[in-house]
Amino acid sequence: CQSLYIQNFNKAMHDDQMMHLLRILQSPKCKIWCLNIGETYEVSTRVWTKFARGLKKTKVTHMYASEHTISTELKEKFRNVIRRNRKKHDMHINPNNLDVIIKCTHCWWNPINAKVLRPYIRDHGYEHILMDKELLGVKGTTEGKYNADAI
Q: What are phi and psi of 28, to 5 degrees?
């Protein structure tokens, strides 16, 4: 498993579950690099902050957490950590992993947008995905069907 989408688990995700998830993500055996944990309202700011710090010890390079559950400052912390994590591996830009990459959408930055992948996206017939704003989760395009976010 390389991606985990657990958005809308509001009743199930609390502080303890978030910390347990972080421990799993920090395991050297864990291959998850794409995480969508949107619409998680029962997690405290203290645990969100710990989670952001703890992501440094994971492979997570792309993610989404609802902006209305975390502060702007914390969102920037998350984004800075996951950007730095992109130097740890190439699963998010490896053309041999394109079948997984194209399914990793609804993140703050979708991996399919990486310029290095453009020739491979074209060669594999996936260019239409780059134009499909609903599939990518661009804010305002999903009419509530998905956890929409800005790329």
A: -60, -25
Residue 78 CA neighbour count, 13 Å, CB half? 25
SS3 call for 3: strand
* Residue 111 Rama label (left phi>0; alpha psi -120 to 50; beta): alpha
pTM for the whole structure? 0.85
141 near 105, Cβ under 8 Å?
no
Report how far residue 123's alpha carbon sits from residue 120's, in angstroms, rounded to the nearest whole number.
5
User: Mean pLDDT across the stretch 25-38?
Assistant: 97
Q: Count CA atoms within 13 Å of residue 53 on its CB side.
A: 7
Name the one residue in this structure whose structure tokens are 């993500």. 25
Q: Which residues contact 63 (CB under 8 A, 6 or more apart)?
A: 34, 35, 36, 37, 78, 82, 107, 108
